[in-house]
From TrEMBL:
It catalyses: Hydrolysis of (1->3)-beta-D-glucosidic linkages in (1->3)-beta-D-glucans. Residues 1-15 form the signal peptide. One of its GO terms (biological process) is carbohydrate metabolic process. InterPro entries: GH (IPR017853), Glyco_hydro_17 (IPR000490), Glyco_hydro_17_plant (IPR044965). Its EC number is 3.2.1.39. Belongs to the glycosyl hydrolase 17 family. It is an enzyme of class 3 (hydrolase). GO terms for molecular function: glucan endo-1,3-beta-D-glucosidase activity. Keywords: Glycosidase, Hydrolase, Signal. This is glucan endo-1,3-beta-D-glucosidase. SUPFAM superfamilies: (Trans)glycosidases.
Amino acid sequence: MAFTWLVVVLATILAIHNYQIIGTANAAVGIGVNYGMVGDNLPPSTEVINMYKQYNIPNMRLFDPNPNALSAVKGTQISLSLGVRNEDVPSIASSQAGADAWFTTNVQPYVGAVNIAYITLGNEIVPSEFAGSILGAMQNLQNTLTTHQLTNIKLTTVISMATLASSYPPSTGAFTPAAAAVMKGILGFLSQNQSPLMLNVYPYFAYASDPTDIRLDYAQFTAPGPVVHDGNLSYQNLFDAMVDAVFWAMESLGFNNVGLVVSESGWPSAGNGNMTTPALASVYNKNYLQHITSGVGTPKRPGGILGGYIFAMFNEDQKPAGVEQNWGLFTPDMKPVYPVFG
């Protein structure tokens, strides 16, 4: 999880002061959970997969092709979003042989046994030194999938709100020049291949950066009525406002037919005083789950949110101290931090 987009949020605050899938047979529908592994005390992957089944969590996101996790998910009905490490994107983009090699190692052994819905080329690498490689990597890997008759696996990438130069009001949503330079080609690929874009959305960070101007109920889906008005659209929660800013940014580049999957969202249960309690985290994630599975979408794009994932399965002790270690739905001993599922 990268937090550089917080700069965008702070700039926005100063200015304020103020379930369906496109064309995929096996794609993730509804809610899922990110399976992060930055911890030295986490349970074996076989036990983690059993937890997904026990709590009826239908979708899983992996940040990289971890062999233990991929082996453990074999033969289940879990729909998987499989990540490509940021540093591996350039080698896949460099040649068709590079894409074929990545596929042979990380996908081919699991074909027919693992329900791979998405392969994500990088996580929050727009903009970065690797961003220019994403489109080429998508094109080469798409050729590989086509050769193996696996075109039901959709290729995409994961961006954060840091790609936006403006996001308030949502109708002003626009990519930064650096992001726009690569996003136009990426969106063209996604549109042509009927694949969604993935987006990490964290209302918590906006609220935590200025709880005076950003209402807690607006950040937690609990506001009793509209809080923000933008033309003829009204926003009762910050999540929708953030997502719609990205829809507008995509439209500004000429793409109004690309859906979004929310690749990460959540609320930490500790690490920042009374802004991060198990009660607040439970409220946010239950409401987020309900919002995603309802299929209602956003004010601008009804039905446009094509599923979402909660961040994350576990509290991970090898992340930086503070909120970073406290995003998990479960402790490493597999006990719920607070109730969300079941």
